[in-house]
Amino acid sequence: MIKTIASRIGAFFKSFQLTIVLLVLLMCLVVLCTLAQVEMGTQGAVNAYMRSFVVMKHFSALPFPLPVFPGGALVGLFLTLNLIAKTLDIKLSWQKAGMWLVHAGLVILFAGEFVAGMMQVDTNMSIEVGQTVNYVSSYKNTELAIIDVTDPTWDEVYSVPDTLLAKGGPIAIPGTPITLNVKQFFPNAELSNLPPGAPPSMATAGVGPGVAIVEKPLVSADNEMNQASAFVEPMAGGRSYGTWLVSVALGAPQSFIHEGHNYVLTMRLRRQYLPYAFTLKQFKHDVYPGTDIPKNFSSLVQVVNPSRQESREVLIYMNQPLRYEGKTFYQASFGKNDTLSILSVVENPGWLLPYVSCVLVSLGLLVHFAIVLRRSLKRRQDKKEG
Amino acid sequence: MTFVKKYLAWGAGIFALLIALFVALPGGKARGFDVSGFGNLPILEGGRVKPLDSLARNSLLVIHSRQGFRHQGRMVGPDEWILDVMFRPQVADQQAIFVIDDPDVIGLIGAQQKQNRNYFSFADLSSHLDEIQKQASNAQQKKPQTRSRFESAISNLFDRVYLYYKLRNTLQLAGSPGLGWEIQSLGTAEAPLRHQDLIQLAHFRILPPTAGANPDAWQSVGQALSAAQSGVPLHPGLAPLAKMNAAYVANDAAAFNQALHEMNSVVSTLKPGALDHATNEVIFNRAQPFFVGLSIYFVAFLTLCISWIYKPDLLRPTAYALLVSGAIVHTLGLAARIILQGRPPVTNLYSSAIFVGWGAVILGLIVERMYRKGFGTAVASLAGFATLIVAQNLGTEGDTMEMMRAVLDSNFWLATHVVTITIGYSGTFLAGAIAIAYALRKHIVGKADPETEKALVDMAYGIICFSLFFSFVGTVLGGIWADQSWGRFWGWDPKENGALLIVLWNAVILHARWAGYVRERGTMVMAIFGNMITAASWFGVNLLGVGLHAYGFTDSGFWWLVGFWATQLVFMGICYAPARFWMEKPHAKA
């Protein structure tokens, strides 16, 4: 009984029907995902169709979304299982060597895409000419930074990620006497000047009392950003320092003093500090003569890494990124009249897998078609002789 | 007898090549003026040095949709036209070259719509320039996708009028007494204002960089005059230009040709090599290898069609010979582009169409060599013809050898990723075309011929394997390029998705066949569907207007794509048509 079920499951996973159904489903998903990008932006559409197990759709008549289509992750998972089952099923003979390589390569390619989907971290680094930067910032995620700026030569940064702020309640900041009481968190909000006569703000300190705040739905399009905001009350030594409004949309720093320490409160894009620093020595924006058509962008960067006793110059330009300590730095954008260079930073532990897969699959296809060609030529030869 | 036939067939091919050669010969002088010599002058425009002839052809193509026009009973070529625009605007302004098809735009300029195409001269339009500009600037605030038909038409007209206006004011300000007078009035109080206008309106730079200057620092006439005003010695090219200007206005051909000779020696001293490069490009322009190629393909296809009902022994080899000569012209054109541009073959949508056609023709030639049934010739000549027609239509938007934007500026990846993926397109289209031939043949030829059918299916199958290989490798190479330049292997960008669809579909066909779910007919229906997917991935992405690959949105392209899909659906229906159409045909013994 168990054996038949197991063999049935085995037969299911290695069947050609499954392969074809999954490939066609994947094609449908790709088409849907492409069309949805016009509305939702690339990232939004990819999350909805490709990185999800089930595609959910909101119907106006129903309060909750309904599953309408298997998502890319599910199809991908089944396709991987199908591939593995098939690969194991292919006879280990020289005749099938090509097919074996192709399918093994595809398994690696899928694994690479899964690793990228799960583990890839995209950040960026903006440096102005002459500036030294030792952190990368997230594109979308935010954090509340509490910076002890008492020492003019050294900032001590403590930060609370937005995911923790969203839970609310008191958060003790390790290393400081401060406990942060999160009163309200807005994943996205719009700020404006508080009109006269409006109900007073929850904030009692800093710029908050003069600002009106309206919660907004989350946005996902590529060129839009969520303005994360929160009301927080820092407590230390048994006293409250008032309720402060912090928001990505607020530019001016707000600070309070506790026992001689000056603390700055600021909501900003989440930063990751690096054990090394980049100094931008030169940024170049070349155009074709007599036009505005960009020819090349390049950043000349001094990389200083004390732990490796390393200090060297690197030129990062189009199609020529810097791979350093598990991160890859690309020339992505520029600004401020060509004095600001923006490098996009990617950390993907599986970046090599597609390269391996490409070699395996190409080799496999070549081997297989060579075998088939040889067989068919032989058959022709036999026909002629016979 | 067969010997004679063979020579007749190859004679036809050689005759076609001779015609191609004849087209490339230089034309005569217009009214005694060496206009083609003038077209040979190198200029800097759009970031690259090219002959004035290329600019004249592309501008005329943009404004007039053709590279020449008939005026007062005589053909005016691009070089003569641009000379008139720049030196005798009063003559050029009267030539009716602006094509306007939109009835609302015609109404706007207060004219009646005529029966045929509607051509207007700059003089016709000149009293409505303010209105055109106002309407166009309103329209141009909208995204191209959201513009109405009128808005697209008026903004397009404005761009063409503005191009013409700039050309008119590049070498001299239209309406002024000319370049010679401009040089004489250097140092007067009003001159700097005119220099500013000339600098602003200059469409190209004709004066090569002076000795010791930055090698890319070509100057426009306005820039050189302005420099002379501030005390720099007069650019040596200005004097011969002024002489040409005066001679052309005075209708003195000998003096013009003499001044052109002087200009040529100035150019070859200041920028050795530029003149030769420009001359080569002019030969390429004149030869129009892709237009000649598509004409030969068309004749080859017709010849083959006739061969099915008349003298197959003679006409089939003739069609094959014609296809070969078409392929030779096509290949030479492709090679010339690669050499002139210094880039791999595919750099933009236009060149991708040329390359897809070339790949399909070469594959078709190989298939014909293997099976010798005429189908390879038919499919290859038709595919070559169709893709070159597409290319001709894509090439009406300006310079087809435009410079590559920064991220694309990588010959290595253009040569590997772009070329392999385009070969994948060629293969999928060729397989689809063979499937269409199979479907039509089944219905037209009453007699069942299992051997030919089997051969066609084998061809399609082999080509699908071939395109799966190339489209897969091309897609993965694209991923690696993306990893090198944007930091991710795969980003679900529309163009990437399009390429993935082709790979997936070819994989579906092969798996369905291996598993035995489809046989001959099913494979062929699926191969035709491959045409739809490839067309969507090739052009549809540009229509969506999102993503990193969305270069060149073409508004009329959408309906062409829909039309193409519709025909493919019809072919799929024909291929799948009811069994009684072919299954029960008696296997008549011949």
Automatic annotation (TrEMBL), chain A:
Pfam families: ResB (PF05140). It comes from the Bacteria. Keywords: Cytochrome c-type biogenesis, Membrane, Transmembrane, Transmembrane helix. Residues 272-338 form the ResB-like domain. InterPro entries: Cyt_c_bgen_Ccs1/CcsB/ResB, ResB-like_domain. It is found in: Membrane. It comes from Geothrix limicola. The chain crosses the membrane at residues 68-85, 97-119, 351-373. It is a multi-pass membrane protein. This is ResB-like domain-containing protein.
TrEMBL record, chain B:
InterPro entries: Cyt_c_assembly, Cyt_c_biogenesis_CcsA/CcmC. Keywords: Coiled coil, Cytochrome c-type biogenesis, Membrane, Transmembrane, Transmembrane helix. The keyword Transmembrane applies. It is found in: Membrane. Residues 347-549 form the Cytochrome c assembly protein domain. The keyword Methyltransferase does not apply. The chain crosses the membrane at residues 290-310, 319-340, 346-367, 374-394, 414-440, 460-482, 498-516, 528-551, 557-579. Residues 122-149 form a coiled coil. It is a multi-pass membrane protein. This is Cytochrome c assembly protein domain-containing protein. The lineage of its organism: Bacteria, Pseudomonadati, Acidobacteriota, Holophagae, Holophagales.
